[in-house]
């Protein structure tokens, strides 16, 4: 098989998990990394990050998962937390409408602090956690609509407690981050000026390649 060595390089992706205190960020991470739901881990995690290796397509990818140590209560996580993030998981608690309302400010804060090169295509996923509970306060529809208005970010309804959709959400994030990494590598490899726009191309969908020839 023809495989350039450049495409085999080790991939490390920094993933940060944001959302109000108590929504289950630490529990989601724990479930994903250790396949456990346990309150005892809470005290020990919270320092810097946990890592987990996984296969995405046929690549070995190391996810570096950054959790907060409770500072999210003050919405001040510090620049080191955000710096160099490759992907971001936004979490709310489906039984707590307030944790849903703050998603906009978490997303805005992320975009300000991390200032990614291409904010519109930055890999986010939205997680509605605690779907095992009865007292739901935010509908699936409402959350999905919000996600759609934010560059159509993927939305997962999860339970860290019962291990529902947790792996799927992190997998999606890893895939999207890897794809974005590849796209920006390509962009970085050739710092050419943008392709010349043909006149009359204004009606085209944004960013689509012109396919040669002329429509007149
Ligand atoms: P945080 O890291 O976002 O602050 P935690 O949130 O992971 O510390 O979780 C906060 C509380 O929610 C914990 O309960 C935890 O056990 C609970 N929790 C997390 N995920 C789920 C879930 O999917 N379902 C249910 N039912 N509970 C969950 P305590 O009681 O320790 O505050
Ligand atoms: Mg926590």
UniProtKB/TrEMBL annotation:
Region (Disordered): 182-216
Record field: compositional bias (Gly residues): 200-210
Gene Ontology CC, one term: late endosome membrane
GO biological process, one term: endosome to lysosome transport
Predominant location category: membrane
UniProt xrefs under PROSITE patterns: RAB, RAS, RHO
Record flagged with keyword Acetylation: no
Highest rank taxon of the organism: Eukaryota
Gene3D superfamilies according to UniProt: P-loop containing nucleotide triphosphate hydrolases
GO terms, molecular function: GTP binding; GTPase activity
Pfam families, per the entry: Ras
Protein family membership: Belongs to the small GTPase superfamily. Rab family.
Protein name as catalogued: Rab-like protein
């Amino acid at each position: 098989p023809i495989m350039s060595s450049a495409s085999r390089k080790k991939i490390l992706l920094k993933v940060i998990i944001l959302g109000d205190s108590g929504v289950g960020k630490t529990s989601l991470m724990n479930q994903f990394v250790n396949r456990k739901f346990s309150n005892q881990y809470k005290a020990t995690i919270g320092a810097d990050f946990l890592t987990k290796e996984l296969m995405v397509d046929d690549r070995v990818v190391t996810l570096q998962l950054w959790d907060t140590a409770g500072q999210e209560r003050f919405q001040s996580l510090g620049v080191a937390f955000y710096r160099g993030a490759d992907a971001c998981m936004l979490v709310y608690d489906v039984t707590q409408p307030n944790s849903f309302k703050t998603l906009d400010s978490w997303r805005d804060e992320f975009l300000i602090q991390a200032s990614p090169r291409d904010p519109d295509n930055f890999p986010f996923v939205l997680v509605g956690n605690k779907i095992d509970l009865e007292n739901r306060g935010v509908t699936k529809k409402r959350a999905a609509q919000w996600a759609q208005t934010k560059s159509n970010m993927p939305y997962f309804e999860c339970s860290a407690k019962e291990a529902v959709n947790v792996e799927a959400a992190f997998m999606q994030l890893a895939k999207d981050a890897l794809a974005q990494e590849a796209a920006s590598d390509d962009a970085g490899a050739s710092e050419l000026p943008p392709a010349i726009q043909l006149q009359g191309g204004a009606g085209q969908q944004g960013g689509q390649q012109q396919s040669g020839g002329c429509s007149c």
